[in-house]
Amino acid sequence: MLGDMSGATTPAPGRLETVRRFVNTLDVDAATDALATPGDLVEWLTSADLLDDAGPGVGAGPAELAHAVAVREALRETLAANHDGDPIPAAALAVLNEAAGRARLTATLTARDGWRPRPSAGGVDGAIGGLLALVGDAMADGTWSRLKVCVDDTCRWAFYDESRARSGKWCSMQVCGNRAKQRAWRDRRAESST
Ligand SMILES: [Zn+2]
């Protein structure tokens, strides 16, 4: 996502927005990562209400940070697959299932929404499990398939596709959509001049 234009991207409904914000802690275009240190991770998870920083086992080290970043990138691959309704790529699936195991995700009967995954582990592992539980909730309520990442390889910003046909490709028509159109126009012009 270019510069400070995140406002141009539609937020996801409800707590799915937390998952979108997690994926967007890496700004591919600007090459900035909000999860640069274990302390950043704890702070982010706490501000997202996934971690109680007064609770036990909230400490994070390089291993927890590497785990969180691996989950984030597996989620990005999963959102890329949502464009064509493709299955979750095998490598991403393995990372997410490993994270679910560490979080001890457990099917829990909820008062209104049936059986939903909930983490039994505490600390950072449990907090990552809380994110995966939000993914499970969104899959159950049908909003998950609209969460995507921009198809522009230099962007890959997570956005919620509100289009009726579920055909949105770019995080923002004004930025990445236009960039793609201009590229296509230049390619056509180059072809017609040869
Ligand atoms: Zn984009």
TrEMBL record:
<feature type="domain" description="Zinc finger CGNR">
    <location>
        <begin position="146"/>
        <end position="189"/>
    </location>
</feature>
<dbReference type="InterPro" id="IPR021005">
    <property type="entry name" value="Znf_CGNR"/>
</dbReference>
<protein>
    <submittedName>
        <fullName>Conserved protein containing a Zn-ribbon-like motif, possibly RNA-binding</fullName>
    </submittedName>
</protein>
<dbReference type="InterPro" id="IPR010852">
    <property type="entry name" value="ABATE"/>
</dbReference>
<dbReference type="Pfam" id="PF07336">
    <property type="entry name" value="ABATE"/>
</dbReference>
<dbReference type="InterPro" id="IPR023286">
    <property type="entry name" value="ABATE_dom_sf"/>
</dbReference>
<dbReference type="Pfam" id="PF11706">
    <property type="entry name" value="zf-CGNR"/>
</dbReference>
